[in-house]
Amino acid sequence: MDNPAREEDSGLFGRPPQQRGPLPSILFIMLMLLLFTSHNGEEYLARHQYQEALQKLTYQKSNFTAWMDGTSTNFSLPEQNVSVLPLLETLLPSNGSVDPVYSSYYPNITGFIHGDLRLYNITPSYLANSTESYPWKPIIQDYMKDFNENLTEISEKMGAWNWSAPQKVAFSVVEKIPLLSANSSANVTENIALIHGRIEFSDASIGEDLRLEFEGVHFLKNGTIYGLAEPPNRAVDIRYLPSIVPENMKNETALLIEPELSSRIDKFKKLIDAGIIEDSLEDLPPKTACPFTLYAQINSIDVPAHVMEEHEEEIQRPTGIDTHLPTRLSMKSILISKECGMVYEVSDMEGLRSRTFFRKVTTYAGTAAIAYLAILMLFSRQMAKSSTPSGISRVSRYSFLVQSTIDSVSFAGHVTFAVLAEGRPSLSLIAPSFLACIVFLYEAQFSMDIYQIQLPEDAPSPPRRPPAPAPVPTPPVATPLPTTDTNPPTDSSNESSAPNLPATPTAAVSATPQPETPAPALSQNITFWAFFWQQIRTDPQARLYVILFIFLSTIVRIILSPTLTLLFVAITYSCIWLPQIWRSIRRGRSSGLSMEYLVGITICRIYLMLYFLACPRNVLDVEPRYWSYYLAAFVCLQAMILMLQEYFGPAFFLPKRFSTVTAYNYHPPLSPPDEESPEKSLGDCAICMDAILIDPSLRQTHQTSSSPDDWDVKASGADGRKKSANIRGSGGVIDPAGLLDAVQRGVGIAVTRKNYSLAPCHHLFHTECLERWLAIKNICPQCRRPLPPL
After folding, report:
1. The RING-type domain covers which part of the protein (predicted)?
2. Element (H, E) at 758
3. Is the confidence at residue 752, as pLDDT, over 60?
4. 3-class DSSP state for residue 358?
5. Strand runs (DSSP E) across 554-708, as ranges?
6. 242, 559, 640, 711: which has the fewest Cβ within 10 Å?
7. Using an 8 Å Cβ cutoff, are 734 and 727 in contact?
8. Per-residue pLDDT tens for 402-412?
9. CB 124 within 8 A of CB 144
């Protein structure tokens, strides 16, 4: 039977079993219900809009099918303005159907097209009062004669976008073979193709873009394009495409609408049923509500039709044969917005096919990866060479910091480019982005290591301590002990022998101990931000990671702004080697950078810069900047100066008054050793613990000198009076005694003064020992203080 007393003593007697509260169970059930029943906000909204788009497409298809069948429907096709045809003949003269034996058109324009913009105001009031004249002005006036000009409505549709600011436009086009309906013939697919894509207007002054979604048709025989463009928040109704094409192509265009609507309806149904929701919604408010009509004309090229077909087949199904065409895709187009009263004329349009672009991206990724691999190898070899403190003391941390900044921007740019490219080209861009990231991290870490070693270089040296006076023996003071006896017994022998005790060197220690100063206690009420700021100030590694975080957070803003990108490239490339040149001049020592590192890094850096700023057909279509050649020449000049500093000195190109280097003197004049010292040494070396002996000949000079303070002065040849007195007679004949004294002075400079080295912390070493030590560590072996270069 259990003992109740024992249970009571153990604290278990009468204790009820602990029960779990209901709150954790309730929270767990609510979380599970949330996960199973809650629709994520964006996903739910996207699914809802998918369903609305599906209903809208179904409605459009039923109305268009009824209109095609001639049954009752509320859909009607508007009539085309009679002024459109003469306007197109004036602005977009067509070559018509060319002879396939000599010329042809590009049959597939899938890719990226860029062009220059020019804006025309075509509102009736402006045309009536404008003195500007152009050939098609009467035609456009006739085109706008039935326009109801309401300035308030026009202003609301145009929105806040500055339509006169864009100077460039970019088309992203995707072309596909249309689906055939039951009433269409097989010849339709040989004459017409459906296209869709995006039009982007760029405002370089504010760094913003305006996007329009467009749908259109491409007539392959004569190279004409007709399309409708709308802002992203307004879907393009492809049922109205037959109203903008020529009259003889209206029926063929109408036969493509119903199969295309059916294809899109099936796509939405499959996506909704499979639960695949692509959130492609525009979260930002629309910048405009102006619709546009697109008319374009592709320029024919002098290539036979069969050669063009071979080229197209090679692009779609590569076999390795050479089918390079002599001319790139070029075209001209106009964008008309009758509702907003404006016309954009797009000129100098050049395109790059998607397959060609992807192949170009892959080629660039390979060359950029090779360049960054070479940079990584050269940098690792240079790090191994400069791994010692003496080697690190020569290099400039700012040169590596500038290069790490360049590589961080390159890493972010390649990652962004890979995300935008998609598909296989994005995989090829992983290699240069990964290598750029590795180089960036290594260079940042190496620059931080350099900073930690070079940090105390500019710190003021501690004041030189005066020589400690010799300890004076003092008799011990008898301290009477407290006693009640007025006549204590005395020992005469102890009293007589006390003054004759020898004095020890430690007898000068103060008898009264000084109280230790307590260390300030850390505040217990310190805030997180104060602690964070203290860590940033005191911990170099924390500073490094904060800088990396700031760089990676703000670098996207730089690469997305063309102006900031060009300014960044100009500044950073100008400062690649300048900090190293300045440090070599300031310290009076060469850089220690190897020849292969300077040449290899300079070539790789210049290649990556000139590809985007000098190549007219780079992957990003950046316009050439001719100042990039001057920038490349300036970088080469910096590298050449660094190489010449190894042979002619750090300040060979500067006047002598600017090339004076103030360095710490490890061999200052010292007081002579004690005459009674048996070894005649300056002391023991703090590294090898051996005595630092002086030259015997200079001890003789010291014995004949007038004062002890002149010992090192005479040894160094600073006594001008004796030097001048040694020259006797006419013709500058040197006295033999003076010659012997000069030899002794030379020995004193070369042997005695260079035999010892006095550190800023006043510790004395053999010069050879200190040189070997500084090749390993850059601190004093005795007090651990940092040491300047020897």
Report:
1. 760-784
2. strand 756-758
3. no
4. helix
5. 681-684, 691-693
6. 640
7. yes
8. 998 899 888 88
9. yes
Q: Residues 343-374: pLDDT tens digits?
A: 999 998 888 877 778 888 889 999 999 999 99
Half-sphere exposure of 174 (CA within 13 A, CB side): 6
List, for residues 85-97, the tens digit of each pLDDT value.
Answer: 889 988 888 767 7
Q: Whole-angstrom Cα distance, residue 435 to residue 37?
A: 44
**Residue 266 three-state SS:** helix
Residue located via tokens 């007038």: 706
Residue 423 tokens, joined: 């598909």
Burial of 420 (0-12, 13-18, 19+ CB in 10 A): exposed
Alpha-carbon distance 66 to 80, whole Å?
21
Q: Which two tokens stand for residue 221?
A: 């025989």
Helix (H/G/I), strand (E/B), else coil: 126:
helix
Strands (E) across 492-541 are located at none
Give the CA count within 13 Å in the CB-facing half-sphere of 124.
11
The span from the CA of 317 to the CA of 355, in Å, is 10
Q: Does the pLDDT at position 376 exceed 90?
A: yes
Q: How far apart are CA 88 and CA 335, in angstroms?
A: 11
Q: Which two tokens stand for residue 426?
A: 């994005």
- Residue tagged 């190293």 (tokens): 580
CA distances from 759 to 463, 691, 748, 777, 787 (A): 12, 17, 20, 14, 7
Helices (H), 671-783: 696-704, 711-715, 720-725, 736-747, 753-755, 767-774
The highest-confidence range among 6-10, 32-36, 533-537, 646-650, by mean pLDDT, is 646-650
